[in-house]
Amino acid sequence: MTVTLITGANKGIGFATAEQLVKLGHTVYVGARDVERGEKAAAALGARFVQLDVTDDASVSGALAAIDAAEGRLDVLVHNAGVLGQGTIDGPTALRVFDTNAVGIVRVTEAALPLLLKSSHATVVTVSSSAGSFWAVNNPERLEYRLPTALYSASKAAATMLTVQYAKLYPGIRFNAVEPGTTATDMTADFGIGRSPEESAKVVVRLATLGPDGPTGTLQDEDGELRW
Questions:
Q1: Domains present along the chain, CATH in parentheses
Q2: What residues of the chain score a pLDDT lower than 70?
Q3: Looking at 29, 145, 152, 170, which residue is catalytic?
């Protein structure tokens, strides 16, 4: 049985990814900050719940300790938790966005590494964004060129770089970042754009279920590897 942890999995793409992986036979741990919402989501999915706030060291350590006690390993880690950080661009907002979207990846990855290294086919997927691609945001033909998301884009560029660097540090684990596609979620409601979370989750699931010869250190969307 493949043991999988998904952060921010009580709604949106995280929830849809969990749903699809449960159907594929994974033992899925739904990580969520809010206990009530997380437990409700896990019950609806037939998954398990761990309280996990990616901005809190104690919460992250506790979540991975619980998985260790129950499973003894972790096969798949999906970094899905994220914030948009729209509005005023200032220091406190930047700290909040980067703490969730980039530093949170470091917190969870470092806490999960001892369990991932016990797996025979460990895979880490970071839900990043082409909004953090230098190529995309400088291409007038791309939607990202017109998105007013300075802090979000910068934090996702950091998330993709962390993916590349972790892939180099741990060649026995597959690390890939994913652009799941423009998706209608709570985070994008103000833009009024996007397809269903279920459709976008398929891209995440593809990378979460790679074979042992799958790629590592890449940013991908549904069509394959992206420039960034």
A1: 3-225 (3.40.50.720)
A2: 183-195
A3: 152
